[in-house]
Amino acid sequence: MKHAKAATAAVVLALTTACSSTGAPAPARDSLIWATDSPPNSLDIAHGFNGSSTLIQSAVLDTMLALDDRGAPAPRLAAEWTQPDPATYLFTLRKGVRFSDGTPLTAEDAAFSLRRHLDPKVASQAAGYFTTVEKVEAVGEGQVKVTLKRPNPAFLAMAAVAWQVTPRKLAEKHPQDLGSPEVGTTGTGPFKVAKFSLTSGVVLERNPSYWGSKPALRRVEFKTIADPETLRLAVRSGEVDATNGLTARDARKWTGLPGVKTIFFPGNNIAYLSLAVESGPLADLHVRRAIAHAVNRRAVADLMTSGHGAPAAAMLPSPQLAALYGDNLPALPGYPYDVAAAKAELAKSAYPGGFELTARYAGSGDTGIVMQAVAADLAKIGIKLTLEPNPADQYRARMMEHERLTIHFVNLLYGSPDPLEVLPDMVSRAAAEPQGFNFAGYGSAATDKRLDALASATGQARTAEVTALLSEIAEQVPYIPLFYTDNVIALSEKFTGAFSTWSDAYFTAIRPAGR
User: Fold this and answer.
1) Which of 233, 332, 419, 461 makes a 20 to 30 Å CA pair with 515?
2) 3-state secondary structure string across 362-410
3) How many CA atoms lie within 13 A of 340 on its CB side?
4) Which domain holds residue 244?
5) How far apart are CA 192 and CA 507, in angstroms?
6) Tell me: the pLDDT tens digits for 321-369?
């Protein structure tokens, strides 16, 4: 497990200026080309809560709060806030902030931007972050009052991740297609959208109305390059300046690449198998436990991280576990790799002779590699897993619609050090609905009650509630934790940058070398 100090330390990259063929320094560039391995589907977090989409959202749409390098809430659009009582927050907006079209930011804009996640008609993918919010209202000039159903110590961290602010009029007019290529979005962030196409990419330009320090980059262009080797060659040739589309597994191919620096920093992610528990063989607890024993998780972790990660200890990201427990992780029910134990569990099930199951996976990226390893392991105990490749964007859409869920590899990246960001995704009944991240369909009234208790608990009581939920997940096996990985960014030596676990401000952190 990573220590908390290591998990929050910024990784600073200092690179030399590239030289021309004549030996003279090349002119500093203020335009960056960034490649992603899949295209963004929406610039609205409500319908595009995924890595490639939120990467761009974070440059265009400010949140009310930020997280500092230690993961603690810090001012952003809210210059300050108070807590009149344990279930109430009063936010005071920063003065003089304007959207990129020049329109002044108002408290109504900020209040509505949070309130829309509570509207079931919007079907927001971020709704699970705000289940304890009762009411959001503008109260006087420049102030927003948030009333919770009960005290929730995680609320500020959740707001820092998902309370993106857009103009109320625009969001009201487009409850379902805000952030689409046809509608776009408008924000108060350091960049504005100059172009958004699902086929030809995204272009951001510096926002002249930005309230903060002017970013060093004038323009950021995003290209989608799904094939890892094509991506590596594009970065090497200078066609692309940077990417976070490489994996820890492939890092050895990038390290030492001429003119490119590969940067690693602790990731707040959890990679796991999701087992749909509501019907079929996976509804049988003994089947799920058999699968947990049959999958060689250490081998999968070694394959997928190449030394830049570790096997997952529980169903929380490593930095979150470290922040909560330090080095004293509690003992949880476990299923070490043991083929004999797997066969014994399967013999207790309604499927002692095994069974066949079809599982879809994304045709690009790491999903297929993991699922092929899983299929090989399960074959040893009589479970035949037929793998069905899908285009990455189609696969993602079907997953979010909860269409034909069985066994799936999932790798989710989170934004805060609070376990309440993750656990509702895993076990709340609300997240088991389409557009939620509970792909196992696991949950009950009792589990929701336990999540409610966690939302208002503090101190040792809070730690005890997290432990109880992790124990329940380990006992019932709707998920099988696989591995943690470091985040990896490849950046041309023509640029410098500083990155940390908790920061999403990649494009304000990057500047031409020599500046």
Assistant:
1) 233
2) ECCCCHHHHHHHHHHHHHCCCEEEEEEEECHHHHHHHHHCCCCCCEEEE
3) 0
4) 12-58+182-266+488-512
5) 12
6) 998 999 899 999 999 999 999 999 999 999 999 999 999 999 877 899 9
27 vs 514: CA distance, rounded Å: 9
Number of separate domains in the chain = 1
User: In the block, which residue shows the tokens 């594009």?
Assistant: 234
Q: Is residue 208 part of a domain?
A: yes
pTM of this prediction?
0.77
Region of 98 (left: φ > 0; alpha: ψ -120 to 50; beta: rest) is beta
Residue 270: which of 222, 313, 225, 334 has the closest Cα? 313
Residue labelled with tokens 């109504």: 108
Rounded Cα–Cα distance for residues 233 and 23 (Å): 24
* CB 47, CB 162: distance < 8 Å: no
- Rounded distance, CA 428 to CA 128, Å? 8
**3-state DSSP assignment of residue 496:** strand
Integer Cα distance of 340 and 299 in angstroms: 18
pLDDT of 3 > 80? The answer is no
User: By the 8 A CB rule, do 492 and 241 touch?
Assistant: yes
Q: Is pLDDT of 219 > 50?
A: yes
**Cα Rg for the chain, rounded, in angstroms?**
23
How many percent of the chain have pLDDT more than 90? 76
pLDDT reported for residue 138: 97
Place of tokens 């829309």: 116
pLDDT over 90 at 71, yes or no: no
Q: Which amino acid is at 308?
A: H
Pair of tokens at residue 85: 């009582």
Name the token pair of 163: 């309370």
- Residue 244 counted as domain residue: yes
Compute the distance between CA of residue 503 and CA of residue 446 in angstroms, rounded to an integer: 35
**436 lies in a domain?**
no
Residue 498 has pLDDT above 80, yes or no: yes
The DSSP string of 101-169 is: TSPBP-HHHHHHHHHGGG-TTT--TTGGGGTTEEEEEE-STTEEEEEESS--TTHHHHHHHH-B---HH
- Residue 42 within a domain: yes
Query: Would you state the structure tokens that stand for residue 278, as one six-digit string?
Result: 């509501």
